[in-house]
Design a protein that fits this description.
mainly beta; Immunoglobulin-like; 7-stranded mixed β-sheet; 1 helix; 205 residues; 5-stranded antiparallel β-sheet
Length: 205
């Protein structure tokens, strides 16, 4: 079998759902909308800095995230993805004015403040997905979520250390990575190892 050099993902919950509030624009009633797809390229492993300045990122394009519904703020958001023999790399970038982030600990309810998040549902036969959130201050929430007949609750990873621990960094533009700081935007970069995603199906891809 030839080596895998890229993956084609449909931007639907089965494979990937990034920044849920922005991803897919609402479709018109009675109109079918073709789901967008991205091609995720394979790379050699590299150091995560939070700035997306590794040369590996140059081999892939940004994917813009579209707002769902109307909103008062005209912020933009985008992401990139790569995968290696050891895991998945995700790079988030968005505009902002104030870093609304006060929580100073991992595994808190980060989604109530500014956050980037991604969801991995690797096999639609099983109603279990992995969710990852990261705040502008670098605090994170990695959880495995079973959804059983509409009843769901996140479970924290066990032995979250060593090769199972996510490598992540954040950076801000136009300001500092501090709570309530005035900025023009911020970015986050994360490496999610396959070892953490076990025993989900189709991992590695």
């Amino acid at each position: 079998m030839p080596p895998i050099t890229s993956l084609r993902l449909s931007l639907r919950p089965v494979c990937l759902f990034i920044a849920a509030l922005f991803l897919l624009a609402a479709s018109l009633p009675g109109q079918e909308t073709e789901l967008p797809q991205i091609q995720v390229k394979k790379c050699e492993d590299f150091e995560v800095t939070g700035k997306g300045d590794a040369p590996q990122w140059e081999q892939t394009e940004w994917t813009a995230l579209n707002r769902r519904g109307a909103g008062k703020l005209d912020y933009t958001a985008r992401f990139k993805m790569l995968f290696s023999e050891k895991g998945v790399y995700v790079l988030f970038d968005g505009t902002d004015e104030v870093l609304t982030a006060t929580m100073q600990e991992d595994f808190l309810d980060l989604w109530n403040e500014d956050v980037f998040e991604c969801f991995f549902w690797t096999d639609e036969k099983h109603s279990v997905y992995f969710e990852y959130e990261i705040s502008p201050l670098g605090y994170e929430l990695p959880i495995l979520v079973p959804n059983l007949d509409g009843r769901f609750l996140g479970w924290r990873p066990w032995h979250y250390e060593g090769d199972r621990k996510i490598v992540k960094r954040v950076s801000a533009t136009g300001g500092s990575n501090e709570s309530m700081a005035q900025v023009s935007g911020w970015s986050a970069e994360a490496f999610i190892p396959y070892d953490l995603l076990k025993p989900l199906q189709n991992v590695p891809p």
